[in-house]
Design a protein that fits this description.
Radius of gyration: 19 Å
Bound molecules: erythose-4-phosphate
Low-confidence stretches: none
Strand content: 15-25%
Helix content: 40-55%
Largest sheet: 8 strands, parallel, barrel
Number of helices: 11
Order of helices and strands: EHEHHEHEHEHEHHEHEHH
Number of strands: 8
């Protein structure tokens, strides 16, 4: 399983890139606006310059033609751009048109196996089931990830599954076990994945034992 960072925060992306475990970034309009910027294009271009991995960027308009037009425009911003298109009827048509032009699509806001199958058949490079939001609504988000992975594997569909809307380290463990190709996570969850009190205690003890021996 690969890991993407789910943020538009430049400092966090730079910091995570240094750790060498991040293969890409996913953003959405809410995440970009949280950073207090009004320049969407400049923010996305800066993120694209930090890592060469795929950077998912959502369209900011509705309607088939406006979405296609904006997606074409955004796709010129950097070679590693992936366009996020919502899993709606219009989004499906847009996904199909963009895929034919060779523009990579992340079929996002995916909440059912049927949406994921249709996104894959339309040519999406990625589908993003939103695990946390499904859990919040009383469903089992990870079960959906497992179902999508199973069906894509069974029918040899090449679309990759991004387990999205992950909220804590147990989500990452479950996504890996479910066979997700990618887990996209906030920076805080990336840090939580690594942290273990026994590691900290072990490091401190090794150093103090060696220090005592020298005295
Ligand atoms: C994924 O591509 C989305 O940006 C993200 O995971 C949404 O997460 P949220 O439900 O925590 O907003």
């Amino acid at each position: 399983m690969r890991i993407f960072l789910d943020t538009a925060n430049i400092d966090q992306i730079r910091q995570a890139a240094k750790l060498g475990v991040i293969s890409g970034v996913t953003t959405n309009p809410s995440l970009v606006s949280k950073e207090g910027t009004t320049d969407y294009e400049a923010t996305i271009k800066e993120i694209c310059s930090i890592t060469s991995g795929p950077i998912s960027t959502e369209v900011l308009v509705e309607g088939v033609e406006p979405m296609i037009e904006q997606a074409r425009q955004i796709s010129t911003w950097a070679p590693n751009i992936v366009i996020k298109i919502p899993a709606t009827t219009e989004g499906l048509e847009v996904t199909s048109a963009l895929a034919k032009e060779g523009i990579k699509v992340n079929f996002t806001l995916c909440f059912s196996l049927n949406q994921a199958i249709l996104g894959a058949l339309a040519g999406a490079t990625y589908v993003s089931p939103f695990v946390g939001r499904l859990d919040d609504a009383g469903h089992n988000g990870m079960e959906l990830v497992r179902d999508i992975v199973d069906v894509f594997t069974h029918y040899q569909l090449s679309t990759q599954v991004i387990a999205a809307s992950l909220r804590h380290p147990q989500h990452c463990v479950a996504a890996a076990k479910a066979g997700a190709h990618i887990a996209t996570i906030p920076y805080s969850v990336l840090m939580q994945m690594l942290r273990h009190p026994l590691t900290d205690i072990g490091v401190a003890r090794f150093l103090s034992d060696w220090q005592r021996k020298k005295e």
